[in-house]
Amino acid sequence: MFFTYILYSRSIDRYYIGHTHDLASRLERHNAGWSKSTKAGIPWKILYHEEYDTKGEAMKRENEIKRQKSRIYIENLIMKKQQM
User: Fold this and answer.
1) Are 7 and 57 a contacting pair, CB within 8 Å?
2) Which of 11, 1, 17, 2 minimizes the C-alpha distance to 77?
């Protein structure tokens, strides 16, 4: 199982989109400062995730979300998931 996920940092008011095969471990690494691109935003919280059978599908979805270049798009995804 693979995941596309969206993290949020309240301290810098930013979202981060990524993919992984282990959500819990990946969040721990982000919050431990292992990733240069997320180090400044610690602590991060997972607000959204989608599950996929393959790494390729998860990567494709990550890129689709990133190509939107829209905070509104991301916030709508999160809001729809919370309403389910």
Assistant:
1) no
2) 17
Among 40, 11, 8, which Cα is nearest to 27's? 8
pLDDT in tens, 2-58: 999 999 999 999 999 999 999 999 999 999 999 899 999 999 999 999 999 999 999
pLDDT the model gives residue 83 = 79
Decide if 82 contacts 76 (C-beta within 8 A).
no
Q: How far apart are CA 23 and CA 79, in angstroms?
A: 20
Q: Which of 67, 1, 76, 13 is nearest to 44 (CA)?
A: 13
Domains of the chain plus CATH, in order, are 2-83 (3.40.1440.10)
- Tally of CB atoms within 10 A around 8: 19
